[in-house]
Design goal:
Number of strands: 11
Largest sheet: 7 strands, mixed
Distance between the termini: 41 Å
Oligomer: single chain
């Protein structure tokens, strides 16, 4: 059984920074693309940033220049450094990973971590 556990969310003032982490545990043979999504109240979940195995990152326009996604394959962990935060960054942040585990390749989601940016 594979689980993703997120941490690092919280309340921060506009202009501040937060660093989110997501660690996968369980029977893991390899991890392909890792990604962060955000779901604001009343909105659909949307991609914030993603990083495949070759490290070629992709960001939503709203995140470019302010957020940095990275991964530590040895630790099965992904990070999202968020700087110059804005109130519109508020939402629940979910991590997603494509993982080769026992018997199959599956997509797993974390439980979500709340990020609130006050003006």
């Amino acid at each position: 059984q594979v689980q993703l556990v997120e941490s690092g969310g919280g309340l921060v003032q506009a202009g501040g920074s937060l660093r989110l982490s997501c660690t996968a545990s369980g029977t893991i043979f390899s991890i392909n693309t890792m990604a962060w999504y955000r779901q604001a109240p009343g909105e659909q979940r949307e991609l914030v940033a993603e990083i495949p195995t070759d490290g070629a990152t992709n960001y939503a326009d709203s995140a470019k220049g302010r957020f940095t996604i990275s991964r530590d394959n040895a630790k099965n962990t992904m990070y999202l450094q968020m700087d110059s935060l804005k109130p519109e960054d508020t939402g629940v942040y979910y991590c997603k990973m494509g993982i080769w585990t026992v018997g199959a390749y599956k997509t797993f989601w974390g439980q979500g971590t709340q990020v609130t940016v006050s003006s």
